[in-house]
Design goal:
The protein has 368 residues and is of the alpha+beta class. Helices cover 24% and strands 31% of the residues. The protein binds adenosine-5'-diphosphate (ADP) and magnesium ion. GO terms for molecular function: ABC-type ferric iron transporter activity; ATP binding; ATP hydrolysis activity.
Length: 368
């Protein structure tokens, strides 16, 4: 198992990249701690697979170095890196049985036959394929083949890391939850460094200790699910995570007051003068619909009952604002004002979060 360090890494698929736009992966410095379970989250095309393939050695980066436990492996071929990788679509040997497919990575390394047999049995149980061990892979459903691929990724106990690239795409929904739970327990048992790529926030937040969010070829934030929720470092993290995502309103910030459409909002802390596009971000969970005349005026457009809570879609001076009202909260037609919970507002300049003045920098180098 290994700590993985990305040092000044960048990648362009073009032979002569001109500017930053030509890079699928913008310059990146990042440590993946040994034994942690990470989710790599971002929308399609943001560079997740590119990054994974560079770590496993399938792709050679145009710039920078990859270190495993401080050893430079940038030039090392995939086999030497001792990494298991599971792809979005099944990679299985059709002419082999399920058992032979699962055993392959172990046999390949010359493992003891008795160990291979018991380990294969264990993995077959995890992926729910014990009954099919002697069937040929040919003729199995895509779903079953992908489970074999997952099993093959997990079968070796001695790998440096296991990389999963959207592995549950072709798996049917009820099995997804089951397999994700298995992956988590595998992680608890063996403590492999795991990187799990997904574009699904629920998958990311339920799988990982730490979520790494990518946007447009950049890592914009790494944090616990709670950090991503409370303090999104980039507006993308704000609206990508959460359901619905963070409300963003254009604002003018003056000291500890934000001015939005003639309303003055207390930010709870002071800010230095800001330039660029300034916005405030407030999660729907922290917006309250009220009849209190001291609130800011909104026009309620629609109320959606989603079971545990209600989502109120309202219009705030021409901008849609979403409000989450808890189960116990009763809504009435005279509620046409909103207020924001104290301490719940984040301030952004050109999409990046600005820390209030006097905030302590945390050990990650970000501001609290
Ligand atoms: P993700 O996995 O997040 O969907 P990718 O890493 O596959 O994103 O792609 C990142 C960017 O690089 C995209 O703009 C994609 O079109 C481009 N890209 C990916 N693979 C190649 C390739 N082999 N050749 C050229 N461009 C590529
Ligand atoms: Mg991909």
């Amino acid at each position: 198992m290994a700590k993985i360090t990305l040092d000044n890494l960048a990648h362009s698929y073009l032979p002569n990249p001109k500017g930053e736009d030509d890079f699928a992966l913008k310059e990146l410095n990042h440590d993946w701690e040994d034994g942690s379970a990470y989710a790599l989250l971002g929308s399609s095309g943001c560079g997740k697979s590119t990054l994974l393939n560079i770590i496993s050695g399938l792709l050679h980066p145009s710039q920078g170095r990859i270190l495993f436990n401080d050893n430079d492996v940038t030039a090392a071929p995939t086999a030497e890196r001792n990494i298991a990788q599971v792809f979005q679509f099944p990679v299985v040997y059709d002419t082999m049985t399920v058992r032979e497919n699962l055993a392959f990575p172990l046999k390949n390394r010359g493992s003891d036959p008795a160990y291979v047999a018991s380990r294969v049995q264990q993995i077959a149980q995890m992926i729910g394929m014990e009954a099919m061990l002697d069937r040929k892979a040919r003729g199995l459903t895509a779903d079953a083949k992908q489970k074999i691929s997952l099993g093959r990724g997990m079968v070796r106990e001695d790998v440096n890391a296991i990389l999963f690239d959207e592995p549950l795409t072709v798996i049917d929904p009820h099995m997804k939850w089951e397999l994700r739970t298995q992956l988590k327990s595998l992680h608890r048992e063996f403590g492999h460094t795991m990187i799990y790529v997904t574009h699904d926030q629920t998958e990311a937040l339920t799988f990982a200790d730490k979520v790494v969010v990518m946007y447009d070829g950049r890592v914009v934030q790494m944090g616990t699910p709670q950090e991503l929720f409370e303090r999104p470092e980039h507006t993308f993290v704000g609206y990508f995570i959460g359901s619905p995502g963070m409300n963003l309103l254009d604002a003018r910030v003056d000291g500890r007051t934000a001015h939005v459409e003639g309303c003055a909002i207390d930010l709870g802390a002071g800010y230095r003068p800001l330039s660029g596009r300034v916005q405030i971000g407030v999660r729907p969970e922290y917006v309250r619909l009220t009849a209190d005349p001291a609130g800011m005026p909104v026009r309620v457009r629609r109320v959606e009952d989603v079971g545990r809570h209600k989502i109120v879609r309202a219009d705030f001076f021409g901008t849609e604002i979403n409000i989450i009202a808890g189960e116990g909260e009763s809504l009435s037609p005279d509620m046409n004002r909103i207020s924001f919970a104290p301490g719940s507002i984040n301030v952004y300049a050109d999409d990046w979060r600005v820390a209030p003045e006097g905030a302590q920098a945390d050990p990650m180098g970000r501001a609290a």
